[in-house]
Amino acid sequence: MTTSIDKMTAHEAIAELNSGNVSSEELVTALLKKIESRDAEIGAYISLDADAALQDARQADRARASGKSGRLLGVPVAVKDIINVNGQACNCASKILEGYISPYDATVIRMLRNEGAVFVGRTNMDEFAMGSSCENSAFKITRNPANTNCVPGGSSGGSAAAVAAGEAIVSLGSDTGGSIRQPAAFCGCIGLKPSYGRVSRYGLVAFASSLDQIGPIAKDVEDAALLLGIIAGHDPMDSSSVKVPVPDYTASLKPNLRGMTLGLPKEYFVDGMNSEVRDAVMRAVAQCENLGATISDVSLPHTEYAIATYYVIATAEASANLARFDGVRYGKRAEGSNDPVEMYYSTRAQGFGEEVKRRIILGTYVLSSGYYDAYYLSAQKVRTLMRRDFQSVFENCDALLAPVTPTAAFRIGEKANDPLQMYLADIFTATANLAGICGISVPCGNTSDELPIGMQVLGPAFKEESILQVAYAYEQEQKQVAKVASKQ
Ligand code: GLN
């Protein structure tokens, strides 16, 4: 291997595998060794499937030897614990799903499998994807590889920490209000949330069905493009997935931004935001300008309602979606109840964690008769206004530049007992889910404490190629700058 396993990207792995420098079995073995040595400290994985992964790796090696190819043939991929992989545990980091083994592959998994991907294990997350720090997992916390006293972000914190710690080449997360982009920003990775309907949700355990999307977390933009190209597309099993052709995302990556107009939404650069985050993002904006982009000030006036709107809609949908976890259909059932109703009560009381219960209660409340119009209906109306805000700025802009989060990673425990503070971590990310547009998080420097900072590139629905293009050109420029700096 010319690149060490912890730095390796998927496109480098494919090149090494194709040239015969390494076998998939060696790759998976090296990765498992890395996980063994590092994961006791990081806690990125909830469960590993080493034997099956090695078996699949050997099969990929045989397939390659017999002349078969695949865009990820023999490349290990880590998967968030909320996406079904046939034969693996899928617990959503919840006690209520302990013991549940998936009887089928999610569509994204089937598509990756068709290209030869190998599945090593399940990454940690906030229970049922509710949270921004991974502290809501019923099993363990995950630590940020950049500073193990800090959270990795959430809810896909395990997927981001695994990639950042070199315990995964690439991973899948899910994003309902920021859960791919925020942990990617906190850990210094690339995280892409596709437009609503771009990627099938079949086999993704539903949190808020009108907001959820699956997407890649990667070490570079090329890998994010590669993975998205595989998992995107219409799926008859998910009626909300849209029949729009899937472009060749990798082929459209160019190292400059000439001819592009990028908007700077003023509502995303608010008073009181962390100055290191603001400065890092503004430096990145200047670099995008140097790369040929025209920068234009824009306004998204309904941004201030994003958190309130998101937490009404997301909790309403969650309260309906989580009704199925009742001790009968899936996972665990509480012992010792004498009648079915008592059994439902005690299963749900024992099985769900505090944050999940808080959201089910909140969601049930906003949907209850008498309050429905005041909360849920109003939130839906504001959602429409926010979508229109984006539509109108995208008439003149190819993409928008903004921070991913108002601060870099916070310390473990810092916000754990303050749900409102935790909810505010989603302030710049939840808007994209509400509007159904796409967004990517790309590292743009570090704080003085060496914590990664992320720039967010937001694009119109089904224009993932635009945000990948911006992220790619910026990333390549950063690499050049780093190269020159290291020679000096
Ligand atoms: N942090 C947000 C929440 O707690 C977003 C979660 C997500 O995107 N799954 O709901």
Structural commentary:
With 488 residues, the chain is of the alpha/beta class. The protein has a domain at 10-254 and 433-487: Amidase signature (AS) enzymes. The chain is 40% helix and 13% strand. The chain is built from 15 helices and eleven strands. The longest helix has 24 residues, at 464-487. The protein is globular and about 70 Å long. The model has no long low-confidence stretch (mean pLDDT 96). Glutamine is lined by residues 129-132, 155, 175-179, 207, 314, 426.
CATH topology of the domain at 10-254 and 433-487: Amidase signature (AS) enzymes
Instruction: Please give the count of helices.
Output: 15
Please tell me how large the radius of gyration is: 21 Å
Largest sheet properties: 11 strands, mixed
The CATH architecture of the domain at 10-254 and 433-487 would be Alpha-Beta Complex
Low-confidence stretches: none
**Structure summary, number of beta strands:** 11
Shape: globular
The residue-averaged pLDDT reads 96
Beta content: 5-15%
DSSP helix fraction: 25-40%
Bound molecules: glutamine
Order of helices and strands: HHEHEHEHEHEEHEHEHHHHEHHEEH
What is the CATH first-level class name of the domain at 10-254 and 433-487? Alpha Beta
What's the layout of helices and strands?
Elements: H1 10-18, H2 24-42, E1 45-48, H3 50-65, E2 76-80, H4 107-114, E3 118-123, H5 157-164, E4 171-175, H6 181-187, E5 190-193, E6 213-218, H7 221-231, E7 261-265, H8 275-290, E8 294-298, H9 306-321, H10 340-351, H11 354-367, H12 373-393, E9 399-403, H13 419-424, H14 430-435, E10 438-446, E11 452-459, H15 464-487
Parallel strand pairs: 2-3, 2-4, 7-8, 7-9
Antiparallel strand pairs: 1-3, 4-6, 5-6, 5-10, 9-11, 10-11
Residues 129-132, 155, 175-179, 207, 314, 426 line the site of glutamine.
